[in-house]
Specification:
DUF4307 domain-containing protein; Immunoglobulin-like; elongated; transmembrane helix; membrane; transmembrane
């Protein structure tokens, strides 16, 4: 005895509703993926391209009431701005913070700045640089 098949004959009744739903989900996922990629690209571009000033601490030397910080600043020509540096003691308390201004036509500034502290500092941390 043979058993009756529950499958529909292929090509006779068109695509099933599951296949149509899968296609719509794939299209929606593709559109959302492209939108997310564009958003990430937009923020990445503005983070990199709009940074007019960037800097790094090369070395520092601490004494009882000052920390000498060797900063290397890269900026656009003619851009003026400032970098904020801080120092902390052994226990993590902030013992000094100051803004150091930079201006002029140079695109690279290599400078040693002196940060006054209230106690002996053990770190020199660059908090950030801003144009203006």
């Amino acid at each position: 005895m043979s058993t009756a098949s529950t499958r529909l004959p292929e090509g006779r009744y068109g695509r099933s509703s599951d296949e149509r739903a899968d296609r719509k989900l794939r299209i929606a996922a593709s559109v959302l993926g492209v939108a997310l990629l564009a958003l990430v690209g937009y923020f990445a571009y503005h983070y990199v391209a709009q940074s007019e000033i960037s800097a790094q601490v090369i070395t520092f030397q601490a004494s009882d009431d000052t920390v000498k910080v060797h900063l290397e600043v890269h900026k656009d020509a003619g851009t003026s701005g400032y970098c904020t540096v801080r120092s902390q003691s052994d226990d993590g308390a902030e013992v000094g913070r100051a803004d150091f201004r930079f201006s002029g036509p140079d695109t690279r500034i290599d400078k040693v700045v002196t940060l006054r502290t209230t106690a002996r500092g053990t770190t020199a941390e660059l908090l950030g640089c801003h144009a203006g």
